[in-house]
């Protein structure tokens, strides 16, 4: 039976390059990877991952922990990370906490510590210093998406600044009666996202010396359906209506647009709406949004964690210096926002 030596001879590559190309370890050019794969296929050679793991100390498996997979943002992050990991020859093991504290504890104190993973990407989960330290103690790098983690790498958008800029966009168009639909308090458990975005809205209004009221600050659950119900209550409570709404997610912004239609309100002539996300449906609804590009965030997180693994394997003596990185966002202006017809 052919071995890796024969694959190297047929492909014209070194044994080390063939091993990296077939095992997904290190940097290998696309051309060399194809040469190695074609030679292996011709000879019927299959790399033994068990032997490779024993030799390298790697499992070629990255764990991703998310609150759930039924939300567009989380599934998009996973999609972006999965594409990069697949290209690098790594498996992906997915864990979902399902917003359940016991599930979360089991994942963090049991599953992730079984040493079946090489590294962990935590999405929208505010790990404690003890939880991060447990993973680092067994030499498993950690990267968080959504906020800073003590002693670990992180990748995040500036939620406060995003919310402020979204509100400023409406103010810049001439709106003074601006409402905000944010997340419920239960979503404040990790990184306090609803509170942070609400604070950005409030700061923009305060700096513009515009009034805010509790009646114009409503909470929902980051879904189209939930925001639809909330927006109907906001727009139909008999008080002076706002002329603009800043929704803390695109799905909530879409729910707001649908509620406005129920009241015969034209968007944007009678109600401007802006969101945050970059959801694919935003284009369908003509939604102005701050695109935070979750797939690109997932892909970048995967590249960063793979680079961290490469660094640790090349020089185990290098001290672990966590890196906090801010991901850039982009304002996408569409037809859902405009100068108010009447203020």
How is this structure best described in words?
- The model has no long low-confidence stretch (mean pLDDT 88).
- The chain has a six-stranded parallel β-sheet, sandwiched between helices.
- With 343 residues, it is α/β, with parallel strands linked by helices.
- The chain has 13 helices and twelve strands.
- Helix 1 packs across helix 2 (15-23), helix 1 packs across helix 3 (30-43) and helix 2 crosses helix 3.
- 44% of the residues lie in helices and 16% in strands.
- The N and C termini lie far apart (80 Å).
- The radius of gyration is 24 Å and the shape is elongated.
**Portion in beta strands:** 15-25%
Overall pLDDT level: 88
Tell me the strand order in the biggest sheet: 2-1-3-4-5-11
Tell me the Rg in angstroms: 24 Å
Given the structure, what is the number of helices? 13
SSE succession: HHHHEHEHEHEEHEHEHEHEHEHEE
Largest sheet: 6 strands, parallel
First-to-last CA distance: 80 Å
Helix content: 40-55%
Briefly note the structural class of the backbone: alpha/beta
Which outline best applies? elongated
Low-pLDDT parts are: none
Tell me the number of strands: 12
